[in-house]
Every structure is written in C-alpha cells, then in structure tokens.
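To close the chapter, one final illustration. This time we ask the reader to focus less on the individual chains and more on the assembly as a whole: which components sit near each other, and how the overall shape emerges from the parts.
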Amino acid sequence: DIQMTQSPSTLSASVGDRVTITCRASQSISSWLAWYQQKPGKAPKLLIYKASSLESGVPSRFSGSGSGTEFTLTISSLQPDDFATYYCQQYNSYPETFGQGTKVEIK
Amino acid sequence: EVQLLESGGGLVQPGGSLRLSCAASGFTFSSYAMSWVRQAPGKGLEWVSAISGSGGSTYYADSVKGRFTISRDNSKNTLYLQMNSLRAEDTAVYYCAKDRRGYCSGGSCYSFFDYWGQGTLVTVSS
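The assembled structure is written out below.
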C-alpha cells in the first residue's frame, strides 16, 4: 500500500498569512493526488485534483503543486473561512489512501 | 444539484451486521463509480470500498475485505454497504462519495471524490 504523510500535523497561522502544507508519498504516484478541506462535523470538500488542477468554485488562493512523491498545497492569503483540516489522497492505486491530515488553526 | 443521502447507521453489537444505503440524485448514477469512506471519531479519513458504474468491479480496503460488501442498484440510484462481523474499530462516520475518474490502467480505474454525503454514524459497542 502507498503511505501518504502530511506535514505539519498542526499549523498555527494568522489571517493573511501564506500557508504551505506538504504531502509525501511512499512511492511515486505521478500526479494522481487530490486535496480536500474538512470542517468540524462536515463532509470533506474537494479543492485540488491531479496535483494542481483547481476544482470549479474553489477560490484561486488555493493552489497545488508537485509530482512523483512530493506535493504541496498552498493558501496564498489565509482567510477566516480557511481554518479547517486538510487531507491529501492518492489515487494512483488501490487502496486509495489519505494523509493523516493537517489542522490549520488560528494563531 | 448532486445530492448523496446516507442512511442505515446506528448502534450494533460486536459481531453484528448493518446495511448502509446512499440515495443519489442530480447526476446519471450508473455512469459513475462510487465509494465509501469512513472517519473514526477524532481521526482521519479512510477509504473503505469502491464500485464501478456497472457494479462489475469492486475494491476493498484490507481492513474490511471479507466482512463488507459494496453493491449498487442503478434502477434505484442507490449505493449500499453490507457490513458483517462488525468490530469496535469499525466505529466511524461512513460517507458515500461520488467518484470522478482520474485514469484507468490494467482494467482498473482510479478516482478522487467530487461529491460527498453528510455521513451516517456507525457505533459498534456492547
């Protein structure tokens, strides 16, 4: 199975900050990576797919990059609505594994 | 508008069974693979199972293989998850999710999830 490791596990930031979350795969997954945002008590929401493609309706302050084994999700200017937990997911092979999550907290 | 509505969760004793349902609307159900993803209390997301649009291909996480069965009824636009031999570690919110195809290779297709239901809680406890 492909292991997905996110860092950091928790991130404290202020409104307006540039935030970067890293996701590493235990083996190459090409660009078959998605990013999701989840708020407490809610279902996850798709943000990015194929490593860098922005889902329709998602603000342009979110961007993704990377290929192979290392990927990043960047929020260019953190907004109050962005405080949430973020997950990466590989869909290169079954089982389609998720990272353990990165919680973005208010500093 | 795509809507996914799960039902069937509840409290069940260890060793018991439960069947989850997910009623879909707002898209051509039979054209899309579907998945179940779960989240234990306070924990991260875990992919559980997937099924192709026709129902002819199914995939399972090792943690549920042999105990859970995914199926679908395209005439009713409904996805199911039959869960047998339930364990305490199966306690979680179970989400159904609509797959969007990433790529296909070697007869299998791999997807990410563009729509999610609100989830249904399954608690396994005596």
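The mean pLDDT of chain B is 97. The two ends of chain B are 40 Å apart (CA to CA). With these observations in hand, you are ready for the problems at the end of the chapter.
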